[in-house]
Structures are given as structure tokens and as C-alpha cells.
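From the pipeline queue, job 12 of 40. The input is one protein chain; the requested action is below.

Action: predict structure.
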Amino acid sequence: MDLKEVIAENIARLRTKRGLSQRAMAEELGIHGAQLSQLESGRKGFSLEMIEKLSVFFGVSPAALLTPNTNDMSADKVFEFITLLRQASPETRQAIEMVCGIDFSKPGRLDGLEAVLTAYGARQGQLQSQSKPRRNGRED
């Protein structure tokens, strides 16, 4: 999964969470429905202006659009995301730095991010396992 796909998944998830069709959302954004369809399918790239427009529309930070959905984040997805960030072109890194405030020039920055995301994913897993129904004192 590349960053374009991460953003595409987040847009589709946020749109459906609001109960909007692609057509309705496109009208509200002032873009063509075909353009939104291409963005959500990952066939079209995102400009910084579009990321900003989408973040305002959804009421989320631009960083939230660039971050994989943590509700279904497995350790594999965390490491895949970190690998993508490490392999990003200088232009992509610069754009991410501007949008998210992540400074890639500092040594170990991605290692720290990896540790935070891994710990968060582990914590989410603990919370999910604690919320599973129990029968006779045992997990199903």
C-alpha cells in the first residue's frame, strides 16, 4: 500500500462515515464526481491543496488523511507504512513534513515513529482482546 492508497482509503472511510455518496461529496467540494472516484480508488494523486481541502471538509488534520486507519492497524501495516515513508522521494518527504510536521532530517525520527505506532497498535490489540465477551471466565 502506498501513501496515495492510504489517503484514498481514509477519504472513502470518512465519506461513508458521514453518510455521503460520492456525488454529494463531490458537489460539496466543488469537484467532478469522476475526480472524486479516481481519488478514492487511488488512480489519481493528491495535491497539497486537495489534501488541505479534504482535511477542512472532514474536520480532521492533514496528518489524519496521511495516516493509515488505526482501527484495523496490524503490526504488518505499521511496518509497511514506515517502509513507505523511508522509501519516499525527497519531494514526498518534504510534502509530508509540511503537512504533518514530521522532520525527517533528524536521525532516528522514523524509528521513533515506528515505536510509537507499534506501541499504539499493541495497545489497541490489548483493548480489543479485553472487550471480547467471556464465557465461563475464558475468552472465546
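Job complete. Residues 97 and 103 are 6 Å apart (CA to CA).
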